[in-house]
Amino acid sequence: MNAPLAERLRPQNLDQYIGQEHLVGPDGVIRRMILTGNIASFILWGPPGVGKTTLARIISQAIDVPFYTLSAVSSGVKEVREVLDKCRADARSMFTKGRPILFIDEIHRFSKNQQDSLLGAVESGIVTLIGATTENPSFEVIRPLLSRAQVYTLRPLLEPQLDQLLRRAVADDSHLASRSIDIRETTALFRFAGGDARKLLNIIDLLDQSTPEGETIVIDDQAVTDRLQQNPAAYDKNGEMHYDIISAFIKSVRGSDPDAAIYWLARMIDGGEEPEFIARRLLILAAEDIGLANPNALLLANATFDAIHKIGWPEGRIPLAECTIYLATSPKSNSAYMAIDDALSFVRETGNQPVPLHLRNAPTALMKEMGYGRDYKYAHDYPGHFVRQQFMPDTIGHHPFWHPADNPAETKAADLQTRRWS
Q1: What is the pTM of this model?
Q2: Is the previous residue joined to 144 through a cis bond, with omega within 30 degrees of 0?
Q3: How many Cβ atoms sit within 10 Å of the Cβ of residue 341?
């Protein structure tokens, strides 16, 4: 019983696997790969504790080909080359039934050179690559490698799936099955788990270990909250760093508290958080929460992201701190964020409406004869570089998506729009 509950309960096949129905359900692409035995290179992208490594292990047990594992945390170019040499030997062997599979956990931690070392083997078919990452592959995986591997997104577990995992733990784990367990409430348990299966099981482990033998393990909101407050690092510090603290950081910047924002920034830096992860969140914050109230915020956030790549740690903490304070003290607006979400919803409801003829491009004589571009008014030919004309599809007419927030920059822009269109 020395192994953690999360390891004892790790699924061994797809029937035991909980969640990710879009990938492993009856019509899921990964299930179909396993059933056919034809595994293509892919990268699993999702938050911690949603089954990325487990899925790779299930594939390794289900497919009769050599299966190699590397961790990007502890492996360098030398280790990658050694494994690829083994894969080449396997590929040439008459006893190997299919291409060897190489699973790389936390592939986002590989440098460009390390990722480059994989390219030739993947491209030539010597190895099938399966990567796992908590970071957006668009930023962390080199483009040539991305073009050779499909990206599959794994989602946080929903409450029904967390409940299913809880019931399975109580019923299937031999140690827990031997104990008296009273499940009264699950609201706090699921909230603290945050869609992370490993975190959920680690909390149950904590409740088990803190309840003396012979006593009933009570699972309710009070018990869960009390245990976690007494031992906040008892479950998955990396998960906390990645989600709880980044959430506090974002909300502090959004709430215009520079001191709190700097505190949470320091917590992330001291905890070993990736600087690119913090810089990306600042970029998103600048567009989502400051937006048009201060467009320079996005420029500074982008410059911060570039600076991090150029100087790294420890000096990178300084531009991160500068950007954090600037964003926290800037005026706030989410009008651009709300406008695009409103427009996307509207587009999905109304479908693909035709572009008005006068707005269409007319590169050929035939298109011009058909009326493409006819009657279009070139704004720069008019006073103030503006002239009224219809820009929305004929079937829709004008529909407001942008609702300016109450700040000087947007008030000025809104007043100009009112004068133009009223």
Answers
A1: 0.58
A2: no
A3: 12
